Each structure stands twice: as C-alpha cells, then as structure tokens.
Amino acid sequence: MNLKELTTIVGLVLVAGFVALTLSLSTGAAAVSASAQNGQLHVTKECSQYSGAPGGFCTFTSSNLAEILVGSKIFYDQAPGVPPGFNLDSNVILDAGFGNWAVGRCTLDSTFNGVCTFSDGSGQFTGFEARVNVSPTGGANFAWEGTYRFRPQPPR
Predict the structure, then answer these.
(1) C-alpha–C-alpha distance, residues 51 and 93, integer Å
(2) Whether 26 and 40 share a structural domain
(3) What is the pLDDT of residues 107-125, one digit of tens each?
C-alpha cells in the first residue's frame, strides 16, 4: 500500500465518522446523555387549597428547575394525623401537566418541617431523583431546598 492509498483510506474513515456523528445528533441518539443533569433545587409552594384529605394538593409558585413549572401541583395520597400529633407521611405525585409527573414521598412533623424524596417519573421527569428539605415560610407557604438529578435512561 502506498502513501496515497493510505491517505485516502484515513480520509474516508474520518469523513464516515463525522457523518455518523452528525446523523446520530440529528436523530436524537445523543439526547440520552444530554438529559443527565443535577444540581440544587429551590422551589416554593402555597397550600391554601390543601384540604388535608387524600388527593389534597399544593401549587408551586416558583422553581429554579425548568421541569417544575409555576402552577404545577403536588398531590398527597394520605391524610395527615390529627393534632396535636400532626404528622404527614404520604406518597406524593408532582404533576407538571401534559404527562410530566414524578412520584415520591413526603414526611412532615408537627412544626411542618420535613423532607420529600422523589425516585422516578414520566415525560420530562423520567429518571428524576430529588431530596428536599421542606420548611414553612409563613401562612400556607413552604420552601423546598435540596438537590436533584436526572439519571440517564437507556434508549427505548
């Protein structure tokens, strides 16, 4: 094999690799690794419409995570205990609409401080994991401060 043939082969291999990479990016094949993200989560919610009954909900009023839209809701599956021993330990669904939801669990004590954890979801919340500390900020308002991540998902 002479130098001209070797140069031609190397050039063709480089062009083929570039074409394959370009096609995979344009068809979304690289989207799996692009969705892997993590960071700090800062959210506020108001619970003036929370009934205390199963299916009760609070509404998000701010969020630093694009997937948690203002107006999204968190639904509680279980009712809290009765005062004076109020404790909430409930399965929850974070519903951002349009098939985008995450599942988790929230536990609050009698001072309304607690923790929520999320383990997965659907739509934009596929692979979502989070752990947030919950604290009251006055009235029916609460803050969530914690961390989140999206696990990369295998192609389907």
Answers:
(1) 16
(2) no
(3) 999 899 999 999 999 999 9
